[in-house]
């Protein structure tokens, strides 16, 4: 079935950059809209970036201009390039299909701190 494996998280200083990757399997990746979500302690999970099957992208206002989502359908991967990171970006980051999010991976921890 659906499997989502996130990687690339870590500890970075404010202003730093990080590149997250998501390996997907168990579905026809190329036809699904995909997204990156994040969840900080005590907060609900939120969508921060989305990319359609046609590679149209959208971003939450909080990350617009700093994050870039992309996909490689040949590799069944979704990438989130994170630049100019802020402490408020600290969260566990997850990838998933947009609108079909009943199955989640373990996520990858991003911590932005000096």
Strand fraction equals over 45%
Mean pLDDT: 97
The number of distinct helices, counting runs of at least 4 residues, comes to 0
Order of helices and strands: EEEEEEEEEE
- What portion of residues is helical? under 10%
Termini separation (Å)? 40 Å
Overall outline? globular
- From the helix content, strand content and strand pairing, which structural class follows? mainly beta
Count every beta strand, where a strand is a DSSP E run of 2 or more residues: 10
Work out the radius of gyration: 13 Å
Question: How would you describe this protein?
Answer:
- This protein has 114 residues and is mostly beta strands.
- It is 0% helix and 48% strand.
- The chain contains no helices and ten strands.
- It has a six-stranded mixed sheet, with no helix packed on it. Strands 1-3-8-7 form a four-stranded antiparallel sheet, with no helix packed on it.
- A hairpin with a 4-residue loop joins strand 7 and strand 8.
- It is globular and about 40 Å long.
- The model has no long low-confidence stretch (mean pLDDT 97).
């Amino acid at each position: 079935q659906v499997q989502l494996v996130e990687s690339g998280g870590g500890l970075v200083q404010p202003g730093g950059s990080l590149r997250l990757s998501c390996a997907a399997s168990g579905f026809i990746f190329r036809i699904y809209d995909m997204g990156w979500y994040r969840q900080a302690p005590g907060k609900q999970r939120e969508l921060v970036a989305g990319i359609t099957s046609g590679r149209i992208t959208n971003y939450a206002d909080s990350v617009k201009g700093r994050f870039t989502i992309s996909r490689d359908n040949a590799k069944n991967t979704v990438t989130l390039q994170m630049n100019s990171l802020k402490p408020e970006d600290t969260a566990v980051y997850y990838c998933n299909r947009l609108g079909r999010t009943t199955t989640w991976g373990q996520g990858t921890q991003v911590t932005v701190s000096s």
